Amino acid sequence: MSSPLSRRTFLRGVGTAMALPLLEGMIPPVVAQAAAKSTTAVAQAAVPTRMVFLFVPNGMHMADWTPATEGAFELPYILQPLKNVKDSISILSGLAQKNAAALGDGPGDHARSGSTWLTGVHPRKTAGADIQAGISVDQLAAKNIGQLTRFPSLELGIERGAQGGNCDSGYSCAYSSSISWRGESTPVAKEINPRLVFDRLFGNANADEAAESRHRRDFLRKSILDFVMEDAGNLKNQLGVRDARKLDEYLTSVRELEQRVARAGGDAIAVDPAQRPTGTPADPAEHIRLLGDMMVLALQTDSTRICTFMMGNDGSNRSYRNIGISEGHHELSHHGGNKEKQEKVRQINRFHTEQLAYILEKMQSIREGERTLLDNTMVVYGAGISDGDRHNHDDLPILLAGKAGGAIKSGQHIRYAAQTPMSNLFLSMLDRVGIREDAFGDSTGRLERLF
């Protein structure tokens, strides 16, 4: 081609706008020539660094989370599912969110856990409309770099949130069901329905056209690919062999995802788009993996560079019958030292880590030049409570995956001084996406020994 393909190229059809992964044809010729002198045809300069935050509720069974040694480490029981990505993860012990503590406000640790996790700000205790926390690190990033992508940020979860009501000892439900805050009084609603996330990622900006596209796909049992095949064929004629193969692989993955979404929603035919399936998968593993696949696709296509994902609202009492646990998670987390309850808690913790492993391995499988999507991302995983029975917010279970484009020294367990603010990690992460802040939340500086 005489000129490079735009990174913002879409495959278009009625109501449809399908973003593409990074192709070699999107690299300016002079950059591609320089890159070709190495082992890749894609310059890393064309690849952005992303930020992802995955939250799990009710703390962790810390004895089976924390590695026995600093530096190089063996994976404890809860972390063993991550064996295939071990070289891309670091365990960060000693980090705290001190503003999640009571500080005179009494009970309500689950509400404070969720609302403080990415803000570093102590929330106002209220069950009314006068909620107040602080801007979260993901939304601060979205305000600065969100204009570079189709969606400034993407917020996902598997349990519905609420903006009002008393969910935890006088704290609004907004606190325990939101980790993303656009401002001090504005939690960002998360999407839990895989079908709606799919439609958002592949619909165009014209609401009427998007609704018509959804209607026709449902009524005629059409795939979204049927609406873009002409555009895809024209593009493929312009691509080299490797890019054409990559495009085919991408379209196949979208179709497979679409089929799974349809099965999850009951595959109902809805003549009226307003009556589209609203069901979510009964199996929490499939629910997390469906949303995780769409999150990865959004990152891969540079539709967004910032994501949050709640694998449960804090205080969630969901049971995990899929792994043989009928009691509620929150109930079990108040184990009081009971060995049987602790065993079930660690099984739930390991289940969540298995879903994390699925997402990270998917990211690791996607090549971006000499690196992978995982290499070019920072993924924070963990909880806002350490031990679920103690409700403490120090020495939090925090894992950082990915390498921020090569800037992170991964594959290590680092123990920081007690009460080191987790907000120090956020300051360091913001640096890596080109956002320089003097302070954030309760930060006291930047995190050392990691970058």
SSE order and pairing:
Layout: E1 10-13, E2 16-19, H1 29-36, E3 50-55, E4 89-96, H2 109-117, H3 137-145, E5 154-157, E6 166-168, E7 171-172, H4 173-176, E8 181-183, E9 186-187, H5 194-202, H6 207-220, H7 229-236, H8 241-264, H9 284-300, E10 306-310, E11 319-320, E12 325-328, H10 329-333, H11 339-364, E13 367-368, E14 371-372, E15 377-382, E16 398-401, E17 412-421, H12 422-432
Parallel strand pairs: 3-10, 3-15, 4-17, 5-10
Antiparallel strand pairs: 1-2, 4-16, 6-7, 8-9, 11-12, 13-14, 15-16
Helix pairs in contact: 5-9, 8-9, 9-11
What this model shows, in words?
The protein has 451 residues and is an alpha/beta fold. The protein contains twelve helices and 17 strands. The protein folds into two domains: 1-41 and 204-279, no CATH class; 47-192 and 281-432, Alkaline Phosphatase, subunit A, CATH 3.40.720. It has helices at 29-36, 109-117, 137-145, 173-176, 194-202, 207-220, 229-236, 241-264, 284-300, 329-333, 339-364, 422-432; strands at 10-13, 16-19, 50-55, 89-96, 154-157, 166-168, 171-172, 181-183, 186-187, 306-310, 319-320, 325-328, 367-368, 371-372, 377-382, 398-401, 412-421. A seven-stranded mixed sheet has the order 5-10-3-15-16-4-17, with helices on both faces. A two-stranded antiparallel ribbon has the order 1-2. Helix 5 runs parallel beside helix 9 (284-300), helix 8 runs antiparallel to helix 9 and helix 9 runs parallel beside helix 11. It is globular.
